[in-house]
Design a protein that fits this description.
With 181 residues, the chain is of the alpha+beta class. It has a single domain, classed as Jelly Rolls, CATH 2.60.120. Helix content is 19%, strand content 39%. The protein contains three helices and twelve strands; from the N terminus they run E-E-E-H-E-H-E-E-E-E-E-E-E-E-H. The strands form three sheets. Strands 3, 5, 6, 8, 9, 10 and 11 form a seven-stranded antiparallel β-sheet that branches. Strands 4-12-7 form a three-stranded mixed β-sheet. It has a two-stranded antiparallel sheet with strand order 1-2. A hairpin with a 2-residue loop joins strand 8 and strand 9. Helix 2 runs parallel beside helix 3. The longest helix is centred in the C-terminal third of the chain and has 18 residues. It is globular. The two termini are 14 Å apart.
Length: 181
């Protein structure tokens, strides 16, 4: 991914392009931590309901100890409370999100440490974020133990999914992962 050029003092300088980004499922940087059966079943219910249509997650760049990811969650995407096994800084490119009681928009961001639980809700136009992680391989651990949350997420998914058909490009207009050119 990208080309490496040596600068005048021999340090690597690497270019990367949005069009060359890989979908996470191809990039292999994130693995699911073992879950108990109920969480796996609950997430599978969201997958059957079309939740994967509401996100696009692409690896822009990685090297040992660092990764850069572009994420687009469409409006109302039900992101469960979860954690990752790496520190991460999040920078909002476009759209908005609510995390806790805070509303964040383009140019805002937040930091989440290794194994710290979090969740956020994309705004009315969805949200695009850059994720800068301190690892090139990490896990995701779903942490929602409340069956009522999964029921509410499934109901919300059924409400917002029809709108996703009209959200054909991320709010910024940045084209990521086309592989063309």
């Amino acid at each position: 991914m990208g080309g490496t050029i040596k600068d005048s003092i021999g340090l690597p300088f690497t270019l990367f392009r949005a069009r060359d980004a890989l979908p996470y499922e191809e990039a292999g940087v994130m693995t699911a931590a073992p879950q108990d059966g109920s969480r796996s079943d609950d997430f599978a219910r969201l997958v059957e309901g079309g939740v994967l249509e509401g996100s696009r997650v692409s690896l822009l760049f990685s090297r040992p100890g660092l990764s850069l990811t572009h994420v687009w969650f469409k409006s109302g995407f039900p992101l469960p409370r979860h954690s990752h096994s790496a520190d991460c800084a999040y920078f909002i490119i476009s759209g908005s999100l609510r995390i806790g009681t805070e509303e964040l928009g383009a140019g805002d961001g937040f930091f989440v440490g290794d194994s710290v639980p979090y969740a956020y809700v994309p705004g009315d136009k969805g949200v695009e974020v850059l994720e800068i992680r301190t690892s090139d391989h990490f896990d995701i651990r779903l942490l929602v133990n409340n069956p009522a949350w999964w029921d509410k997420a499934a109901t919300r998914l059924a409400e917002v999914r029809p709108e996703w058909e009209h959200q054909t490009a991320p709010p910024s207009g940045i084209v990521v992962g086309t592989g063309s050119g």
